[in-house]
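Whether sequence alone determines local backbone shape is best considered at the level of individual chains. When preparing material for the folding task, we compiled for one chain both its residues and its backbone structure tokens. No coordinates are needed to read the tokens, only the vocabulary itself. For completeness, the protein is quoted in full, as a sequence line and a line of structure tokens:
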Amino acid sequence: QVHLVESGGGLVQAGGSLRLSCAASGGTFRPYAMAWFRQAPGKEREAVARMIRSVGTTYYANSVKGRFTISRDNAQNTVYLQMNSLKPDDTAVYYCAATDYANSGYNYWGQGTQVTVSS
């Protein structure tokens, strides 16, 4: 059973940076894609960044494009989210997710890590 564990969240001032990590453990893990989602209080969960593992192709939500970068370390079964120029609107619980297939929902989820950006 594969488990995803996020880390790196915290409190940061607007304009600052944070780097989130998502480590996979518990078995062979070669997902088709990995992604970061976030959910703010009272709002729906939204995808912010996604990477096709085998080729490294990335996709970003317009709200974070140019500020966030998703990357991976396949040897370490870890995916990262570098977040720069953070804004109060980025405050949310951030979740790591992975899917084994190209056209299906995400079947692996982490527990989430809180990111709070103060103004």
Remarks:
- The first strand starts at residue 3 and ends at 7.
